[in-house]
Amino acid sequence: MPSAEYMREYFKNNRETILARKREWNRKNKEKIATWQKKYYQEHKEEIATKNKEFNQTPKGKRLHTIDQWKYKGLIHDDYDRLYDAYLESTNCEECDVEYGVKGDGTMTFKCMDHDHQNGYFRNFLCSLCNIRRG
């Protein structure tokens, strides 16, 4: 049996060929892969749900979920990670300077991402009231 070092070196030297073979095999076996994935999911559904729930509570999970929601709602930006960091640092509305509240507290001052609904580009961070006024 080849050593781990030999295999690392072999993969390094033949990377493109190995990956091309793998892509071709995946292309030819889509149905087999889909069947296997579906079966695996059914057998491990609770475990997968638990891991996903745990991941979504981590800082990385929250970041990915928030950015996915922005994209889903049509927000366009060049650097979502930098925008997310700025979002976390923002404490007051950029239009009326009110300190952000919590969604559901009745004040309508929770933080919103304002973006142009025609082209999707981010404009600024606003409280919900200013975001509604701006349309």
Q: Look at the helices and sheets and give the structural class.
A: mainly alpha
Taking the alpha carbons of the first and last residues, their distance comes to 66 Å
Using the CA coordinates, give the radius of gyration.
23 Å
Average of per-residue pLDDT values: 93
> Can you count the helices?
7
Helix share bin:
55-70%
Q: How would you explain this protein's 3D organization?
A:
- There is one protein chain.
- The protein has helices at 4-13, 15-28, 30-43, 45-56, 59-72, 80-89, 128-134, and strands spanning 111-115, 122-127.
- The protein is mostly helical and 135 residues long.
- It has a two-stranded antiparallel ribbon.
- The radius of gyration is 23 Å and the shape is elongated.
Task: Describe what is shown at a glance.
This protein has helices at 4-13, 15-28, 30-43, 45-56, 59-72, 80-89, 128-134; strands at 111-115, 122-127.
Features:
135 residues; mainly alpha; two-stranded antiparallel ribbon; 2 strands; 8% strand; elongated
Q: What topology emerges from the helices and strands here?
A:
Blueprint: H1 4-13, H2 15-28, H3 30-43, H4 45-56, H5 59-72, H6 80-89, E1 111-115, E2 122-127, H7 128-134
Antiparallel strand pairs: 1-2
